[in-house]
Amino acid sequence: MEIVRRVETLQDAKKNVKGSIGFVPTMGALHAGHLALIRRAREENDYVIVSIFVNPTQFLEGEDLESYPRREEADSRICKLAGVDLIFMPTADQIYEEDELCIGAPARRGYILEGEKRPGHFDGMLQVVMKLLNLSAATRAYFGKKDAQQLALITQMARSYFLSCEIVPCDIVRDAHGLALSSRNAYLSDEEKQRALALSRSLKRASRKVMSGERSVDRIIPEMEQVLDAVDRIEYIAIVDRNFRPREIVEIGDTIILVAAWVGKTRLIDNIWI
Ligand code: PAF
C-alpha cells in the first residue's frame, strides 16, 4: 500500500493503474462505517484509493476543525488490512490555492437542515469532493447514507457537472446498541453515549409508527420528540422525500426521516430511509 501526500505523486501512481478505481473519501479517524465503504470499494473495483483529509473549508468558525480526531497511524493500519492500494493524505496547500474557485450548494436543497444550521458547510464539502473525485479519477466513489443530505448534493453535483464517476450510496453502520457510527462519537462520554441512543431510538419509533399504518408527519414528529427528551437540544427533526422536499404524508419508498441533536458538546445526526 502506498501513502501519498503530494498531488503529483498521486497523478504518477495512477498512470500504472489498470481497470476500475474505487474511491472512499474520508476525514480519517476511521471506524467500521468507513471500513464498510472500503470493503465495498475493494469488492467492486480493481484498485482502491482512500483519501484522508480534514477539509478546512467545510468547517464553520467555532466548529471542531482543530480538535477533529486525527489518527494517521491507526488509519493507515486499517487501510492496509482492508486491502487499500493507495492512501492520499494531502496537506491543505496541496489541495487549495489562494483565491479559490467555489462551487456553491444549490439554493433549496443546500440551504435547509444541515445547510441552514451550518451555512457554508456544503459549499466547502462540494468543493473538496469535486477536487478529490477529479484527482482520484474514480470509476466509483462510496458515501454513507448517514450524511444523507451530503450524499444527495454530491449525487446532484456528479449529475450537473457530467462527472463520469458513479456515486455509490452505502447503508448506515450502527454499533450493537443502534448508535450510528461517526468519528465524532469519540467526543462522547459513556453517559453521553447512552443518551445519544435517543437519536436512533426516535427513528426506530417513527419507523414502527409508519409500519403500523401511521403516515401523518404531524403525528410522527411528536412521538420522536418524546424519545429525544434524553438529548440536550434537538436541532431539527425533518421528514422529507428523497429530493429533500418536506413531506406532510410519509410515502414508503420515497421518504427520509432525519434528526440532528446535541448531546453535551457534541452535535450528532442520524436518519432512516423509509
Ligand atoms: O463525509 C466526510 O467525511 C466528508 O464530508 C468528505 C466527504 C470526506 C469531504 O471532506
Summarize the structure.
The chain is an alpha/beta fold.
Q: How many strands in all?
A: 9
CATH fold label of the largest domain: Rossmann fold
Task: Tally the structural domains.
Answer: 2
CATH class assignment of the largest domain = Alpha Beta
Indicate the radius of gyration in whole angstroms: 19 Å
Main beta sheet = 6 strands, parallel
Q: Which architecture name of the largest domain does CATH use?
A: 3-Layer(aba) Sandwich
| Bound molecule types | pantoate
Poorly predicted tracts of residues? none
* Largest sheet: spatial strand order: 1-4-3-2-5-6
CATH homologous superfamily caption of the largest domain: HUPs
User: Whole-number average pLDDT?
Assistant: 97
Structural class determined from secondary elements: alpha/beta
Helix content: 25-40%
Question: What general outline do the C-alpha atoms trace?
Answer: globular
Distance between the termini: 39 Å
The amount of beta strand, in percent, is 15-25%
Helix count equals 9
Characterize the structure shown.
The protein has 274 residues and is α/β, with parallel strands linked by helices. The protein folds into two domains: 2-170, HUPs (Rossmann fold), CATH 3.40.50.620; 183-268, Pantoate-beta-alanine ligase, C-terminal domain (Pantoate--beta-alanine Ligase, Chain: A,domain 2, 2-Layer Sandwich). It contains nine helices and nine strands. The chain has a six-stranded parallel beta sheet with strand order 1-4-3-2-5-6, sandwiched between helices. It has a three-stranded antiparallel beta sheet with strand order 7-8-9, covered by helices on one side. The longest helix is centred in the last third of the chain and has 22 residues, at 190-211. The mean pLDDT is 97. It binds pantoate. The site of pantoate has 10 residues, from strand 2 and helix 6.
